[in-house]
Amino acid sequence: MDINSSLAAVVTGGASGLGRASALALGHAGVKVAVFDLNVEAGEAVAAEIGGVFCQVDIMSEESVLAGFEKARAAHGQERVVVHCAMVAGGGKTVGWDKETGGFKRASTAGFEKGMLGIAVASYRVASIAALGMAGAEPLNEDGERGSIILCSSAASQDGQVGQVCYGAGKGAVNSMVLPMARDLMDLGIRVNAILPGIFATPPMLGVKDKAPAIYAGLEASVPFPRRLGHPDEFASLMLELVRNTYLNGQCLRLDGAIRMPPK
Question: Which of 4, 19, 256, 262 gives a 20 to 30 Å CA spacing to 80?
C-alpha cells in the first residue's frame, strides 16, 4: 500500500507511547490520522502536531468506539490503516501471599475478565469495526487491497512472566485472532498483522527509570542486543513497513532485541 496524503488512518492509544509514535510517523508521512484516546490534552496535542483529528474514545465501550470511527470518517473519509495500541490490562499472580491478611489470595476473576475485555475483546472490536468500513471501499491497488489492520500484542504473549497471567493470555488471544481474521478478510483485500514488542521506553517504563534506576538498568541488561529498551519510533518503523508491504499478512512479528526472559 502506498503511503501518501490520500490515505486515512486511525491510531488507538495515540496520545502516548507506541500509539503516539505510530500516529506521528503516519502523520509525518502525509497520512490523515485520527487519534483515539481518553487523554484529551495529550491526544489533541498529537493531533495538532500532525494536522489530524482527536477523538476521545473508550475502547471498553462499543458506543464510544463507533462514535470515534464516525467522527474520524467524517473528517478524513474511510480509514485504510488501523493501528490498535490502546488497552486496559489486568495483573496479579494467580495465587500469592497477601501481607495484609497474612494468608494466600488469588487474582480475582473479575480483574481477569476486565483485562481480557480490555485487550482481546477491544482488539476485536476495533479491528472488526474498521474492517466493516474498509469492506465497501474501492481497492487501492492492482492486488485489490482495501486496508491494513495492525494490532499491538506483546512478547509476553509467548514469554509471560510472573504476574502476567491476564496480560499474557489477553495478548495471546490477540495473536490467535490474527491469522483467522486475515483469512476471514482475504476476499475483501484487508490484511491483518500484529507486532509483539518487548520492553520499550514508554511512559510507564520511563517512570521506572526515574524511581528505580537499578531496576531499569537490569531491564536494559536483559536484552541481548542492543542492550537497551526499544525506542517507540522503532515500533513505528515496523508499523510503516506493515502498511507498505502488501505481502505481509497474517503475521505476528516479535520486536524485542531477542529477549527471552527466564521466570523470576
Answer: 256
Q: Report residue 4 CA to chain centroid gap.
A: 22
Determine the residue type at 77.
G
Is 124 designated active site? no
What is the CATH T-level fold of the domain 8-199+231-255, as seen in this structure?
A: Rossmann fold (3.40.50)
What kind and span of H or E run contains 190? strand 190-197
Q: Closest Cα to residue 252, out of 161, 155, 186, 185?
A: 155
Full-model pTM = 0.95
For residue 104, give the H/E element and its range. strand 103-106
Domain extent listing, the chain:
8-199+231-255
Q: In this structure, are residues 75 and 53 in contact, taking their beta carbons and an 8 Å threshold?
A: yes
